[in-house]
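SYO1-like TPR repeats domain-containing protein, Orbilia oligospora. Tokens?
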Amino acid sequence: MVGDTAKKRRKQPEPRAGRKSSATTFFSWANPQPDISVNSAESEILRDQKILPIISGIQAGSPAEKKQHLIAACSIIEDPICRKLLLKQHIIQIILDKVLADSSQEVVTAGWALLNKIVLYEGYDISLHLYRKDIFSQIIGAITTIKSGVSALATQPKSLSPSDQTLLWDYTSSVLSLLTKLSETTKEILDRVSNEDVLLLASALLGLKIGGNKIAVPENVQIAAVILLDRVTDQNPIAYDLLVKDPGFVGNLMRIYTAKVEDAPLKIAATCSTLHNVISQSLALADDLAEDNKIADARLIAPLTAIIQAVLSKQSPSQEEQQALFLSLETLSDVADCTVETFGHNAPGNTNGIQRKTPGDRSSPHSDLDMEDDDLLEGEDEDEDEDDEENEDDVQEDDDDDDEGASDEELPDDLGADMAMVTGEEGTTARASKKKPFDSPELEFLLVATIPAVLPIATSTPSSEPERNIKLTTISLLSAIARAFALLCSKTHKCKFTLPQSLQQSYLPSTHEIWNILITPILCSNSADLKLAEKITELASHITAFTPSVSVSNNQHKSFLALYNATASIPLKVLCVKVLSNLARCQGTDRIEVNKELGTFFMTTVNKLPFYGDAEPADLPAPEVIIECLNAVYDVYDDMDNDYDEEVFVKLGFLKYLKSFVGRLRAMAKKVDRRTRFELRESADEALINLTEFIKYKTAEREEI
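Tokens:
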């Protein structure tokens, strides 16, 4: 029996959540770690013959011997059995107590490298353990040493021998990489990493000069520095406030992101991701940083798309290049999400972040992909301002002179033609919905360049876990773009602006292509991959929200019905209902039978709610599913003029069934505990109110006939 004085297990803090994945996510995919046991006879032999000599050598002997054994330990860390055996021999404590305090810089550098590699493989638990062991006391000293060494190298280059310089940069790279991993552990640790000395050092290492003196920082050190900045600036106002004080911070990032992507894809991808974090924070705070530095998400899409194309062009891309591909996909996805959040705001240059330029200025090397501002706004409809003078203050118009001289000649012929198509004359949809058209350079470029670039990944057949996850990430990007188009074109979206009609029409063919070559084949394959099913269904929900008229010639709706019945996942069931609801909104004589099938499904699902006093059926749907099916009925049958309303809603007697749902839905709502499931209870109560109002509406609608 455990005594009263026994230590209670400490509650693990929640991992830090950012908008993007961990910097080590791709590494984890490429290096899956099996569950192993170290209690076998073979493990004991390995411990005695290999592990114990290393542990002994690290603690005793000359600096050269210590370094040799640390390197030996580092070389076997990849082996999960060796790593577990080293941990059982308290390798972490030995490094903290003895190695990092050694008088030899070579030993200390090797110790940081070993510690960094252990954390890379062991992740969250070891990071938290290090934090509780006060690793930051050691890190503060390491940062001081690095700053001193870099300063000496910048002011007196000959003061350090080539071997000492190599040692300094190895030391720097290990410490920065370890800080990146620690920053992704918990919010508390992130705040410790968000230290002025740490962040300004990382920022300085991206420059060509330190303290006014030229310095050549190795590529691997710059990659470590910019990845640290990327992770630390993700939804972190503390880091933002510290970094904006550095006058060279944004300039260094902008210099890197305009380099050739083939030379440093991972560094450029991480730089673009960092700039995106900075832009997002600047817009959230409504400060002048983004405008003053002429930076915008729309400008990041070109290099990120170029990285994707460059990596895809390689027969066998390296793990670093694949990581750059993954980071580019994730950043573009977040750009699409942020476009929804910031749409219609008076962003720098009044064009969602695109600054105006002098015609003919080709400052960016990505000339074949660069979305220049004048190209984006070439077809802007000035007559809209005359039609909607009351909204004149909502969007400030640039001077007419700024638009003169804009030409598609600034883009390649094919891309220029595409851009002209998506920025042409506006239609009447915006006026009819009382929403003012507002350009989105981000979505324009994502449509013209990014979607064609990533579709081959989304439709590929992966042969490894990293490839599979890159495919899933690509589908998430397409889903984010589809969501942005669907929301920003929706009449019900709470925004006074809408996307230009020409842009909506240009996106329409892409939705059908994605539906036909990506969504439909995966549906027909009956894949058992739950994550793939969730991703593809989410994409389908946004595609069909934008255009319900996608083809169902292959019985795609039946595939979603089958997926609904096959899965036990409530979120996936809800997504299936969303897709089916959107498909049911399509009119046409050839779709009435489809509507009848789907409408019957919605009503049958809700009809499983038990009457008062009856036992709950074994297949009673979750409240979330019931609510979504009711929402589908409200959306699909909201207008008697729809060609399917008479044939389906009226002739199948849906109104009678809806009236029978009221009491049963009220009982369902009362069973949802408001204290533990507040949002679900709110949704259930709202569904009940909507049901009673919808019944009144449809009853009155029939009485008018």
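The first helix runs from residue 25 to 30.
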